[in-house]
Amino acid sequence: MVDFETIVKMRGLDSSSSFRYFELREDKGDFLAGMMNRSVHLKDVVMVVICRAGSVVVSIDGTSHTLSAGQMLLLFAGTYCRFSALSSDFEAEAIIGRVGHENSVDSIAATFPRVRQMPVVSLLKQENQTLTALMHYVDCTSRNSLNTSRLDIDNGILSLLRAELVDIFLHRNMAVREATVDEQLVKRFNMLLAVHSFEHRDVEHYAAEFGLTPKRFAAKVKRITGTTPSDLIASAVVRNAKKLLVSTELSSAEIAEKLNFSTPSFFCRYFKRYTGTTPQEWRLRSTSY
Fold it and tell me: In sequence order, what E strands does the chain have?
C-alpha cells in the first residue's frame, strides 16, 4: 500500500502541504521502482501525471493502459495500479493530492465518475500548457507559504485543478474500451474481496466463485495484476484489520475473531508478516500520529 506520506518521504519532500509536485524519470526511479511490475494499492492519494517523453504501461484495477508523451494519467485513491514496460527515455511531471485532508481532494473523484474507466487521455496543446503551469504553481507555492496560510493555498490549488480537469473531460469522447474476460474477472475478484475477506482468506474459495481451479485462477490474476491472489487477499485482510484497530476499541483477540482467525496469536503473526509490526504496536503508532 502506498500513501501520501510514503511518496513525499520517498522523494525527500515535506508533508506540510496537501499537494506536492515532482518529476518522474527512468533514471530517477525511486518512486517508479516501488510501483514497477507489482500491484500497489493507492491509499489516500489522487495523482495527475503528464508524460513528456517515452512511455509506460499502467495497469489500473486489472485494466492496462499505455501512457505516452502528451498524455495525462489520472489516478484515484483506492485503486490498484502497476507500472511496467517503462521506456528508457521516459519523463513525466506529477502532482499528488492528499485525500481526506481539509481540502477534500477526494471530491475530485466524485466529479469524474467515468474517468476510472478512461484514466489516460491525450491533451490538447492549451490543456497541456495550463496543466503544466498549474504543476509549476504547485511546486512554487509548496516551497514558499510565507504570505498565505497553507490551507488557503491548498484550497486554491484544488479549485484550479478541479476546474481544469472538468474542462478536459467534458470535451472528450468518453469511448471506453471493453474490458477483457480476465480483466472483468479481476474486477469482480476485487469486489468479492471487499465483501468476503472478513471470512475467507483461501484462494480456493474465490477460485470456486469463477468455476476455476486455484492454479488457473492464480495464473489469470497474476497475468493481469502482476501479483498473486494470496497477496491481494492478504492486503484486503490487513486493510480490514487496520480499519478496526484505528476506528474501534476492540482488542486484538476480538478483531481476530471478527476476521475469522482461529486464534489471536495466529492473527498477530499474520498481521506482522505483512506489516512488520504487531496489531497493538500498529495501533499505538497510528493513534499517536
Answer: 19-25, 40-41, 45-53, 55-60, 63-68, 71-75, 80-84, 91-98, 120-122
Q: How far apart are CA 184 and CA 162, in angstroms?
A: 30
At 235, list the grid cell.
492486503
By three-state DSSP, how is residue 52 classified? strand
Question: How far is the CA of 283 from the CAs of 82, 244, 267, in angstroms?
Answer: 29, 10, 14
Q: Which CATH class is domain 181-287?
A: mainly alpha
| Domain range summary for the chain, segments of one domain joined by + | 4-170, 181-287
CATH of domain 4-170: 2.60.120.280
- Dig out the grid coordinates for 23 from the structure: 518529476
Considering the entire predicted model, what is its pTM?
0.60
- Geometric angle at alpha carbon 19, from 13 and 21, rounded to 5°: 60
CA nearest to 274, candidates 282, 283, 286, 284: 282
Of the candidates 214, 50, 208, the one whose C-alpha atom is nearest the C-alpha of residue 133 is: 50
Sheet (strand 91-98) strand order:
19-25, 91-98, 45-53, 71-75, 120-122
Query: Over its length of 289 residues, how does the chain's per-residue pLDDT go in tens digits?
Result: 777 777 777 777 776 777 888 888 765 555 666 667 777 888 788 889 999 999 898 888 778 889 999 999 988 887 888 888 888 889 999 988 887 644 455 555 555 555 566 788 899 898 999 999 988 888 887 666 554 566 667 777 777 787 787 777 776 655 555 678 888 898 889 888 888 888 999 999 999 999 999 999 999 998 887 788 998 899 889 888 988 998 889 999 999 999 999 999 999 999 999 888 999 998 887 765 4
